[in-house]
Structure formats: structure tokens, C-alpha cells
Design brief:
The complex is a heterodimer of chains A (401) and B (313).
Chain A lengths: L1 H20 L4 E6 L5 H15 L2 E6 L2 H13 L6 E4 L2 H9 L12 H4 L2 H4 L12 E13 H6 L8 H13 L14 H10 L1 H4 L2 H9 L7 H13 L12 H9 L5 E5 L3 H6 L4 E4 L10 E12 L6 H11 L2 H10 L17 H8 L5 E3 L11 H12 L5 H11 L1
Parallel strand pairs in A: 1-2, 1-3, 7-8
Antiparallel strand pairs in A: 3-7, 4-5, 4-6, 4-7
Chain B lengths: L2 H5 L17 H25 L2 E2 L6 E2 L3 H8 L1 H36 L7 H9 L6 H11 L2 H10 L13 H16 L1 H12 L3 H9 L4 H29 L3 H6 L13 H11 L9 H29 L1
Antiparallel strand pairs in B: 1-2
Helix pairs in contact in B: 2-14, 3-4, 3-14, 4-8, 4-9, 4-11, 4-13, 5-9, 9-11, 11-14, 13-14
Classes of the chains: A alpha/beta (401), B mainly alpha (313).
């Protein structure tokens, strides 16, 4: 007994200095961006240089992030800082008491436009996370193929269809997308197109409140154009997933792919000579863009280091901090701060420039109509397979509301 | 050795060397403990979980509400019965192909005139040793016209370049076949052991009586290896009702396209573990209700099969 006690005491004595030697504070950060570990870790290393606070990046795969984070928070082992999903998914965590109110953090209210704050706003107007990055839904095109075929970058829907026909006639697959992964056909393709048909956030609010019907003329037209466009998908598009589509495009086997701005890195990696365009505008439509508020950073309400958590959140809300974040984050994630940010990759600047002169909005179903995600996805599948008509698809989605 | 130990008479009746009471408990205790802690407790806890709602922190007792939802909610019950039906189709493919091909290959491999049967045996068994995610991904590429199409066209098999995994009508069949291909080695090995266990004398006697190979196979060999089918049925039944990885790697956890490949395993994963995209918040209670229901069904399937095959022995 005495011996055990002695050993325990010795161990304690040995450990005591080790504990007090641990220099500074170590925070953890949860995220769904496993792919960005290297970049985010470099950014956090830079932050350590500036502040002395070490932040360890602990990402989980995107598909499991929400459930894993929820379990961690429930068990009281959640990370100090964490990526927060926009709208309801993120708000649920705040309402369950897991996240700190960040409204009072200096710079947050001043440096972000109200529309950028809205996705992370609670019903009482307070904020549960500091906006971090938005993504654009765009069409990537192969500059070499377009030049060879003498095709100008289309602006209107008719020009776009004419370009697709020309490519098809030349034996080139116009659009690389498919149904295999069964999320990108909605998130990257249809919701990318949609703002051109139904307008921006003000108009979306009318659909949410029920003042406009989800099977109105604008929606039917959007489904009609979507169905027309699927003719230009590759042979066997039913089994082409998002990874396949990006790869097919990046290796020059299709002229275009509809995807998110986050794929710039992959396209560069495979040496594609790519450019981006906004989704074509239908006749009589107003040019709009899907610029989706994707990630924000929240603080854990039971963190041992609330001051350090607040300091980091304050840092990303400053123009200087946001610029450093932009320098390190992978291409295609745009800081949402209301300040001029410069990007090293000029093509990324080009993507952001597509927003100019266009109304922007989040992905249509995200803010309040998430229940329509699956019904809409099912109808898009049926449309692409030619199993339903645009009117029937619109009616089915409207009935699901 | 101590001589007394040998000469000491073994007394029977009262005061026997057999320890009295439930001495046997000490023999089964270790296994019982392991079983109780790692099998029975989690299983019972999962039954308990199916009566609750919410995640760990804010769990609320809701009685049988999860079961009611599972069987009456329009969407949930449709998904459940769809996955249930698909799982039976998946099982039927395995039973048919693994048994027929297993017997066929095992019969060839145990043929005395066959040379290099060891090599063939290894070839048939190798796929079992590869991770399902790897074979699944490989087949996904091979079955995709975008990647395999050009090669197939070059060798004149253009008609095979189809979106096999993208069509509702073919996806489940194709995935079942891939899974059968991967696991064929195990029933084959079991049948090989079965055929090897048949007494040579029986076959010799049969051939003296004038039975040809055809008769020997149908009348002697096959009836003697039939009990193996029962064992394979149970193994396949259990593994198919828990199958998840092959669908996860070849389709998606959503059982694409349009839930045509959704099995009980993927359904459970979506409801109980990962949550449905894009919200991604699971309902562990509903997941537990799925697994409890399936457990009850498995039990109803396994016990009669076990009884039936035991009877034959």
C-alpha cells in the first residue's frame, strides 16, 4: 500500500512540471472539411504565430459531421470551435444550448452585411456563428474545347442550348453531370439554375410564405429547361457521380460541368484549362446567382477557454484576419466579410466577379424549405430519366410542402 | 508420482469428489460474462433505446412511438418495406448462386482427375480476402460506361456499356452478383469439405452396383452435402440482413437509384447512425426500432432453419 502510494506521488511529481510547462492554450476545432486539412492547419499555424494560441483541427467526413458533432456536444466532449452549418441545422445546436451567442463579438455586426449574417441568425436576432465562407454554384467550361469549336461563352439559355448542340454535333459530351451521387443534381445543377427563374431572396420569401406557389410558371419553366438540358449529359449519366463528373471534365472528356466553386482545386490539379460562367439566363429572366452561405465558425458554450474562443472568432471577423483566411483556404471558398479581399488565384477572383450585377441567394430550399430537399431530388431524377413531365414534377413538389 | 493418489478409492454417492451444487457455473462463467457484456447487454439496450426519442443528452421516453412511426408513417414505412423486400431479393440471389455454383465448383475441385485443384481453390477464395470497399469501388468503375465504355467498345462488346448501377431495374441485381462473386469462396470451401467427407466405400459400392457418375452425384453425393446448404443459408441470412458495405461502396448509403438498392443495413445506417442528408441528424430511437424489428425477424428465420437442419443430422 505504502509502495503504491509512493509510486503515485512520484508520478504526480513528475507530471506536475509537464502540465505547467504546456505553453499557452490548446483549442480544438471541429469541421466537415476533411479535404482541406492541410490548408486549414497552415492557417491555424499562422494564427498561432500571431496569437500564441494553438488550435488543433479535427475534421470529420462531411456526411457524418452533423451526427458526430451532435453526439460530442451531447456528451460534453465537443470541440472548442466548430464549423457551423447555415440555417436550421446550425440553429438547432444553438437552441439546444451548445453554442455561444457571438452577437457581441467586436466587428461581427459591423463587418458583415445583414444578408451574410442571416444564415446564422437566431429567431431573436442574435447570432450563433461568425460567417466564414460562401461558395458559388457555377458552370465550369473547358476553354480549349470552346476555342476549338468557336463557341462564345453563352449568356442566355438559348445561346447555351445552341452551344450544347454544336458540341454534341462535334462528338463532344457537352455536360459531364449525372445522377450517380444523387445530391449534386439538386445542389449543384438545379439549385444553381433556379435563381435565374425564381429570383433572389425577396422572391424566395414569397414562396416560403406560400404567396407564390411552388408549381407556378417560373418553376415549371425551370423544370422544363432542366429536362431539356439532361439531353446533353453523357451516355450512361444515370451512373455518373459527382466525383466522376468532375474527373471527366478535368481530364477534358466533356466541355462543361456544373459544380461548386470548391472544385477549382481539383480542376487545377488535373491541368484543365478551365473558366467559369454563371448559369444561363432564360428569356425574360433576371440574371441571378446561387452564392451559398456555407460555413461559419461557432464557439462551444462549455469551452474551458471562452476568452481564447472569442479572440479567434473576433480575429476572423476582422478584414486582416479574413484576408489571412482567404490566403490559406483552398480556392473556391469566399470569405463573406464586407471588405476587399484579394485572391492569389485569379480564376477564383473571376468566379467571385460573376456575382457582380446579379442578384444572389442561398440554395433555394436551405433557409426554410429543407423538407423539399428529397421530393425535389426525386422529381429531378424522374425528369432526367424522362419518367415525368415538368408540370407533374412541379405539382408533386408543391404537394410535398 | 504420489502412490496414495492412485490407490485412494473413488467413492460414489455422498461425499463424492464431484463438487456439489452448481459447480458447472465456473466453466461457463467466462463465456457467459463476455457474451452478456458484449452481446446481450448491447442488444437489450438497443431494444430499450427503441422506446426513446432524441440523442444522448435529451432522450425522452416515447413508448412504442418509434415502432408506430416505422409501420404507419407513409414515407418511413414505405422505405422500410422497400428495404425489407430488397434484402430478400439480395438474399435470394446469394442463396441461389452461392449454393448452385458452390456445389458445382466444389464437385469439380474434389474430382480426383482434376490437376492443380489447389490453385483453383485459391483463385475462388481470393476475393473473400479483399476488402468489400475495394471490390465495390473497382466494380463501380468497371460498371460505369464513362470509364469502361471505350474498352468494351474496342473489344466489340458495346452492348455491355450500360449504366448498370444507375438503372432501377438492374442496380440491385448487379450489386447482388458482385457480392455473390466476392463471397463464393466460402460456400465452395464448405462444400469441398462436405464432398471430401463422403465415405469412399459408398461410392465404390455404388459404382460396383453400376451407378454412373450422374447417379452418384444426384443420389449419393448431393443428399450427403445438403446439410451444408442449411448452414450456408443461416450464414447468408444473417450476413445479408446486416449487409451495408457493398451498397455503401457501389451505390450510396441512400440506396441509389431511387432507393432501388436500399437494404435494411443502409436504412438502419441512415435512420440510426448518420441521419439523412442534408440535415444529417440521426434518430437513434428509430434506428433501434429498425434493428429490433429485424432482429425479431432474423430470429424467426434462423430458429426454424436451425431446427430443420439439426433434424437431418
Amino acid at each position: 500500500m505504502k509502495k503504491t502510494l509512493a509510486i503515485a506521488l512520484c508520478t504526480l511529481l513528475l507530471l506536475a512540471p509537464a502540465v505547467s510547462l504546456a505553453d499557452g492554450v490548446q483549442l480544438t476545432m471541429g469541421s466537415w472539411r476533411v479535404d482541406d486539412s492541410v490548408q486549414v492547419e497552415a492557417m491555424l499555424a499562422k494564427y498561432k504565430e500571431l496569437s500564441g494560441v494553438e488550435i488543433v483541427f479535427q475534421p470529420t467526413t462531411s456526411a457524418q459531421y452533423n451526427s458526430v458533432l451532435r453526439m460530442q456536444l451531447d456528451a460534453g466532449t465537443g470541440p472548442d470551435l466548430m464549423y457551423a452549418r447555415s440555417y436550421e441545422t446550425g440553429r438547432d445546436l444553438y437552441e439546444a444550448g451548445f453554442l455561444v451567442d457571438v452577437s457581441g463579438i467586436p466587428g461581427v455586426k459591423e463587418n458583415f452585411a445583414p444578408s451574410s449574417l442571416e444564415p446564422w441568425q437566431n429567431t431573436d436576432g442574435s447570432l450563433f456563428a461568425v460567417p466564414f465562407a460562401a461558395v458559388s454554384q457555377v458552370i465550369y467550361y473547358d476553354k480549349d474545347i470552346f476555342a476549338e469549336q468557336g463557341i462564345e461563352v453563352p449568356y442566355t439559355w438559348d445561346e447555351f442550348i445552341a452551344a450544347c448542340d454544336k458540341l454534341l454535333a462535334a462528338g463532344i459530351t457537352p455536360i459531364a453531370n449525372g445522377l450517380g451521387s444523387n445530391w449534386d443534381i439538386l445542389e449543384c445543377v438545379f439549385l444553381g439554375m433556379l435563381p435565374n427563374y425564381v429570383g433572389g431572396s425577396e422572391s424566395r420569401a414569397l414562396y416560403e410564405s406560400g404567396e407564390k406557389a411552388l408549381n407556378d410558371e417560373a418553376f415549371v419553366k425551370a423544370y422544363t429547361d432542366f429536362q431539356q438540358m439532361t439531353k446533353y449529359f453523357p451516355e450512361g449519366f444515370e451512373s455518373i457521380g459527382n466525383d466522376d463528373a468532375v474527373m471527366v471534365f478535368a481530364t477534358g472528356r466533356a466541355a462543361m460541368v456544373m459544380d461548386g466553386s470548391w472544385s477549382c482545386g481539383t480542376n487545377d490539379e488535373y491541368g484543365a484549362n478551365w473558366g467559369t460562367m454563371a448559369f444561363p439566363v432564360p428569356e425574360g429572366g433576371e440574371a441571378a446567382m446561387c452564392f451559398h452561405p456555407d460555413m461559419a465558425i461557432a464557439g462551444n458554450s462549455i469551452s474551458q477557454y471562452p476568452d481564447e474562443v472569442a479572440a479567434f472568432l473576433e480575429w476572423i471577423a476582422t478584414p486582416e484576419g479574413a484576408q489571412i483566411v482567404a490566403d490559406y483556404l483552398p480556392a473556391g471558398f469566399f470569405p463573406m466579410i464586407d471588405a476587399p479581399i484579394t485572391f492569389k488565384n485569379e480564376r477564383v477572383t473571376e468566379i467571385l466577379a460573376l456575382n457582380e450585377g446579379r442578384v444572389t441567394d442561398a440554395r433555394f430550399v436551405w433557409p426554410k424549405l429543407m423538407g423539399l430537399y428529397n421530393p425535389m431530388l426525386e422529381q429531378l431524377n424522374a425528369l432526367a430519366r424522362g419518367e415525368t413531365t415538368p408540370q407533374a414534377a412541379a405539382d408533386a413538389v408543391a404537394a410535398a410542402k | 508420482m504420489d502412490a496414495r493418489a492412485i490407490t485412494r478409492p473413488i467413492r460414489r454417492g455422498g461425499g463424492s469428489i464431484r463438487p456439489s451444487g452448481a459447480y458447472w457455473i465456473w466453466y461457463i462463467l467466462p463465456a457467459l460474462l463476455v457474451y452478456a457484456v458484449f452481446m446481450a447487454y448491447p442488444m437489450l439496450d438497443s431494444v430499450r433505446l427503441s422506446l426513446y426519442e432524441g440523442t444522448t443528452g435529451a432522450r425522452r421516453f416515447v413508448g412504442v412511438a418509434n415502432y408506430v412511426k416505422l409501420f404507419t408513417d407513409a414515407v418511413v414505412s414505405q422505405r422500410f418495406w422497400n428495404a425489407f423486400g430488397n434484402t430478400w431479393v439480395f438474399f435470394a440471389f446469394h442463396m441461389l448462386l452461392q449454393n448452385v455454383l458452390g456445389i458445382f465448383f466444389a464437385h469439380l475441385l474434389t474430382n480426383r482427375t482434376m490437376r492443380g485443384s489447389g490453385i483453383y481453390q485459391s483463385i475462388i477464395f481470393i476475393p473473400c480476402t479483399i476488402a468489400v470497399l475495394v471490390t465495390g469501388y473497382m466494380f463501380k468503375m468497371m460498371l460505369n460506361p464513362m470509364w469502361a465504355g471505350p474498352t468494351l467498345k474496342n473489344i466489340g462488346l458495346a452492348f455491355l456499356s450500360r449504366p448498370w448501377l444507375g438503372e432501377r431495374s438492374t442496380a440491385l441485381t448487379v450489386i447482388s452478383l458482385v457480392s455473390c462473386w466476392q463471397w463464393l469462396g466460402i460456400p465452395t470451401m464448405m462444400f469441398v469439405a462436405g464432398f471430401q467427407g463422403i465415405d469412399e466405400d459408398l461410392l465404390e459400392a455404388a459404382s460396383i452396383e453400376g451407378a454412373n457418375n450422374w447417379h452418384q452425384f444426384w443420389r449419393i453425393k448431393l443428399p450427403l452435402v445438403i446439410p451444408v446448404v442449411g448452414m450456408i443459408a443461416i450464414l447468408t441470412f444473417v450476413s445479408n440482413f446486416n449487409a451495408f458495405d457493398v451498397i455503401y461502396s457501389m451505390a450510396t448509403p441512400n440506396g441509389s437509384p431511387d432507393y432501388a438498392t436500399d437494404l435494411i443495413g443502409t436504412l438502419f445506417y441512415r435512420y440510426g447512425v448518420a441521419g439523412e442528408h442534408p440535415i444529417g441528424i440521426p434518430e437513434p430511437g428509430l434506428g433501434a426500432a429498425v434493428s429490433t424489428t429485424v432482429f425479431a425477424m432474423l430470429l424467426c428465420g434462423v430458429i426454424p432453419t436451425l431446427r430443420a437442419t439439426r433434424g437431418k443430422e
